[in-house]
Amino acid sequence: MDLTLSEEEREIREWVRTFVRREIMPLEPEVLARERRNERGLRAEELKALQDKAKESGFFGVHTPEEYGGMGLGAVMNALVEVELGRSFVQFKFGGDADNILYSANDAQKERYLLPTIAGERKSCFAITEPGAGSDARAIRTTARRDGDEWVISGEKTFITGGDEADFTMVFAVTDPDLHREGRTDESVTCFLVDRDMGWKSEYIDTMGEWGPASLVFDDVRVPHENILGEEGKGFALAMQWIGKGRYLLPARALGACERLVEMGMEHARNRVTFGQPIAERQAIQWMVADSATEIEALRWLVLAAAWQVDAGLDSRQSQSMAKLYGGVKANEIVDRVLQMHGGMGYTRELPVERWYRELRLLRIYEGTDEIQRRTLARNLLRGHASVRGHLG
Ligand SMILES: Cc1cc2nc3c(=O)[nH]c(=O)nc-3n(C[C@H](O)[C@H](O)[C@H](O)COP(=O)(O)OP(=O)(O)OC[C@H]3O[C@@H](n4cnc5c(N)ncnc54)[C@H](O)[C@@H]3O)c2cc1C
């Protein structure tokens, strides 16, 4: 078994690591100060300038297939990139990315939605959650009623990331209420590409985090039939495909944050003297460091094992759920320890620790809560679809 990185993987990771250190981390004090003033941390023009700079070195569309002008990096490489980006709280992402399900678009839709999204000219959002349907996504009630060559969409979506900025949404609505009542969601839900100027409204939702999601309201919004993404009635599978696009990427980002946080904690512990000795000399603090480093290492291999399975074309769903669950739980424990190591300073808004504390909390909620991951993991095991021996058997 060879657990070393290839030459190419190492080179790409080093490039991203240097980019984060030289271009992104220096922005942190200003970004933090703006966020403290309730402004957007990284402004759109600054993000664009950083993305353009990265593009000059070929870093564009890290997830995007090469035929669409992207880098088409594999899952392991994507995870390694995400870890490096996670080391800063500045909300940077490389340009040239688009939602995976937009590749299911027909040629005309690709021209209007996929290509401009990759080019950074349009912004999308993914809308399935409703006030009455979160974990239980099959309980959605937004409807789309056929009227000639159009569909009329009515309902409300909530907690939609980027919903207040997007100029089109991929919205999921019930198109066959009879099948839906029978619980045949795999045939009753359709995904529509809906431009904002077709009439949906959004409202920002204030959250613990720095980037709030939005609620979207569809009040008899008329959408042409040609705006169905994929097939009529087959939307639920697309929604699951979107959510499953890379569950390992969320804990990968948190992993980078945890590495940085523990480094900050150790630095503080070496310098903070109490009762005549640096707190780093105290076993209570050393155990926090040791436990955190061990959990970071375990998370690293959960993330990379899941990503490796994706690249190998294996069924990675169990491993991805494990990485998401463990990452969410452990990142929250680690940031809490690091905050504790900093004492009162950890609780202030002078340091970014409390910011990470709030941000990492989300990982236990979105794209499948801890409880839903556990439900999936246990069901797969108890029904014999997965083994406690993992993919090695
Ligand atoms: C910041 C943010 C961004 C988001 N972005 C998006 C987005 O872009 N698009 C989108 O469509 N959605 C998005 N969501 C929605 C997110 O996916 C849901 O909030 C999440 O799936 C949980 O659903 P819920 O909030 O309705 O909680 P509920 O489903 O009501 O769950 C409440 C609690 O009950 C638990 N629970 C539920 N069912 C069970 C069960 N069977 N067994 C045991 N426990 C259970 C849950 O784990 C949770 O602890 C976002 C949410 C947030 C907070």
UniProtKB/TrEMBL annotation:
Key words, A-Z: FAD, Flavoprotein, Oxidoreductase
Signal sequence extent: none
Occurrences of domain Acyl-CoA oxidase/dehydrogenase middle (ranges): 125-210
Location of the Acyl-CoA dehydrogenase/oxidase N-terminal domain: 6-121
Family: Belongs to the acyl-CoA dehydrogenase family.
Entry-linked InterPro entries: Acyl-CoA_dehydrogenase, Acyl-CoA_DH_CS, Acyl-CoA_Oxase/DH_mid-dom, Acyl-CoA_Oxase/DH_mid-dom_sf, AcylCo_DH-like_C, AcylCo_DH/oxidase_C, AcylCoA_DH/ox_N, AcylCoA_DH/ox_N_sf
One Pfam family linked to the record: Acyl-CoA_dh_M
Chain ranges of the Acyl-CoA dehydrogenase/oxidase C-terminal domain: 233-382
Name of the protein this chain belongs to: Medium-chain specific acyl-CoA dehydrogenase, mitochondrial
Keyword Nucleotide-binding: no
Entry cofactors: FAD
Organism name: Nocardioides jiangsuensis
Domain of life: Bacteria
